[in-house]
Amino acid sequence: MINSRKTIAIFGCSYTSRYRLSLSQAFNQAAEEFGVNLIYINFLGNIGNKNIQYGIYEFDLLDYIDLSQFDGIIYDGEGYNVKGMADKVINALKSATCPIVSISSYVEGFYNLHFDDAEGQRKLIEHFLDHHHFTKIGYMSGYLSHPDAQLRLKEFRKVMKERGLPEDGAGIFEGDFWFLKGKEAADYFLSLPERPEAVVCANDYMAIALSAELRQRGIRVPEDIGISGYDGTIEGKEFLPHITSATRERMDIARCSLKLLLASYKNPKQELNEEIHIKPCPIYSQSCGCAEVNYMKEAENINHVYDFSRELLHNLYDAESSLLNLNRVDRAENLGEVFRKNAENFGNYASFFLMIHTDPNNHPSYNSDFTSPSGIFEPLIWIDNHNEYRREGQSFNPSHLIPDSSSEQPHIYYIMSVHCAERVFGYSLVEMEERTIFNEYYNMWMLNLAITLEQLLKNDRISNLIRTLEEISIRDSLTGMLNRRGFDERSRETIHNIHSEQLVCTMVIDMDGLKHINDIYGHHEGDCAIKAAAEIISACCESGEIAGRAGGDEFYVFAEHYTEKKLQRFIENLHEKISYYNAESNKPYQMDMSYGTFLTMTDGSGRLDDFLRISDSRMYEQKQAKPNRRK
Asked: In angstroms, what CA-CA distances link 194 with 140, 182, 189, 224, 464?
């Protein structure tokens, strides 16, 4: 529980685009007015046209959100650019027990805000017909599979038909709701037998693209062709000429949504199928000829754009620097320090938390030992600039995504998936200062944090693989003991680290009668005997001895900081364990070993080979002295 206030979740996509930005700003203002907490569950979707897989796995975060923690939900279906993901979000939300408002598309079972886009489109068309007295009007639609494009085109045809004009007006061109079809649209409209007096565009972006292309061809807007758009975007208001448009009143949307949710929370039996109508507001501006250029105002706009470009370049430099700093991170625990020092280009934030999946064994998702998510998250980055949140002892789960706050002020959070390709590492949580929303550089940070975690995971896997290969290279495959190479490396490293003279010990231990066992009982039994000898010798290493199989039936032991007493204890253990093995193994042969030991004072310049040579000579003397010895 964040605090005692009602908490409303908003599920949406691409809130850092300039068009979507104003919607979130309106909701933030309304949340303060109504005194509620807001939690944006914000998705990015596909990034560009060449990363279509990114957005698919982003929505796996839905599996780790318990909807019961919310007192109301707002579904914003506009902006989802991953096929099928809007339906996935809707299906997930249908399991919620709290009231839900859909603010951009009709969803059965939800409260629905209805935007009278048909009325807004009608007003723009009738403005050209009645105010400007145009009759040759073209239409630039969005892509026709989109329901908004279908509705707005249908209204265009309806108005034209009512006025006794051709239903398709001067001509209809299918655009893309974006800037990429302006050239083709200009070519189309200028190739018509009669040039249109005006073109109604289904949104501002296409109106801007068409206006720019017409200007390239020497066609003036609005003097030669009037243009209108739709949606009332910031870009449309800044572009010259300013775009005549119709806007969905975002403050009306925000206030109506929150008012409805709070009312339905008190009265859960309120009719769900009721639609709340939001009226569009027409903006008759320069692109249709209804407003003149105010040069003083435009000078201010130019200065604003200049400031924006300068800030953009500055933030780009910061982003490049941050990439270099992230590239130097070699441990996940250092990410917080890098973020705190460098994350300044997306706006002022009050708090930031990076929550990481853990598995049932508490391994984090960036660790190569991680198996599968347990549903529990642990904070990897914890930045609480105002000391408002309780951290100690807190793990986070689907019903508790946000740390407990000591502040009763309304909070506004943004939650995003942190993932790379198909791997979801966890989620990020940011609270901005002054109810502003972050900019696109925050998205860059989340992407780069995910890439860094992915690289750390790969590095950990590579390191583990190298360790495994190194371990294999220094281990004897039959017994699991160090092989000759491993024994030499460990022992020589130990000698090298001796800084003053001390007593060290080497032992050479050789099995007696291995050839006899192989000849009579087979090599399989001989291998069993070797493994038994290795286990006995390893069990005798109680004082930090380094033991290894030198080859065949020969074993080496090295120990630093040794004494006569420790050596005597080792030999006694060796005899006891051999006797115990012979008594309990039920083997048709007797295990025995010969050994030679050498205790000597040495410093870091001692030579292991010299010590082993003496031990080997003493072992051989002992073996030769045994009666009835077998090879």
From this structure: 16, 19, 9, 13, 73
